[in-house]
Amino acid sequence: MSGKLLKISADLVSRIHAHGVETYPYECCGALLGRDDEASREVRDLLPLANRRDDSPRNRFEVTADDVLLAEKTAREKRLDLVGWYHSHPDHPARPSEYDREHAWPWYSYIIVSVQEREPRDTTSWRLRDDRSGYDSEAIESPALSATS
Amino acid sequence: MAVKVIIPTPLRAYAGKQESVEVQAATVAEALTSLTSRFGELKKHLFAEDGRLRSFVNVYVNDEDIRYLQKDQTRVREGDTISIMPSIAGGSRG
Fold it and tell me: How far is B30 from chain A (nearest CA, A)?
């Protein structure tokens, strides 16, 4: 565990699930906008984004630097911070892959939702370790996930 | 030449919690070398083991992507601003 708690409302979790179902069998992706302080982090809004990986969208996603800039701008306009990213793993567990690890930075929260045969299943959150050796699971506090968080 | 490097939020913890750092450099490569020699912990998040910028790390000089300039040999001038921006990538298969 990373030690911090990621708070997110049931409504926002359902929106991530709905996005994952909508794009199934392709991966969905988007930005997590919220607040971060010493003790906890709270997601207050989402910015769904297009998966730019046209070549293999079933098992890859990409958010371009332009979309990252858009996410930062959107966060600023809402007086929030860009605190992380979400994406789906269609027909695959909600665990980060080696590819995820190579393409990540610490500090961000990375929410992964597993979508099995068009049904959202596990929802997890992860933070990359400082030394890039792997991810620590981040506890999610959400009424929508009381059984799994 | 003194140039300003904007540190993205996720990496500020490795740069003394600063939003930007001023370095002396004539090229982008020199600026990033100066930055990472001052803040060693930044290096592994910007560069892969082979010493190249990680594929998802984008660098801009005054909002121009260095890929469309002279890459890390892009020259910088007094007062220029270098920004570092990730693209976000991942996926379910290793």
Answer: 23
Q: What is the DSSP letter of B53?
A: B
Instruction: Map out the domains of chain A as residue ranges.
Output: 5-145
Residue B89 confidence class, pLDDT cut points 50, 70, 90:
confident
Q: How far apart are CA B89 and CA A68, in angstroms?
A: 11
Give pLDDT tens digits for A59-80: 898 999 889 999 999 999 999 9
- State which CATH number among 3.40.50.1580, 3.40.30.10, 3.40.47.10, 3.10.20.30 fits the domain covering B2-86: 3.10.20.30
**CB crowding A4-38: b at 16 or more within 10 Å, else e:** bbbbbeeebbebbbebbbebbebbbbbbbbbebee
CA distance B54 to chain A (A): 8
Reading the block at residue B20, the tokens are 């930007």
Q: Report ipTM for this prediction.
A: 0.85
Reduce the DSSP state of residue A54 to 3 states and report it.
coil
Fold classified for A5-145? Cytidine Deaminase; domain 2 (3.40.140)
What is the C-alpha to C-alpha distance for residues A101 and B13, in angstroms, rounded to an integer? 19
Q: Which of A30-34, A69-73, A104-108, A144-148 has the lowest mean pLDDT?
A: A144-148
Q: Which residues of B touch A80 (CB under 8 A)?
A: none
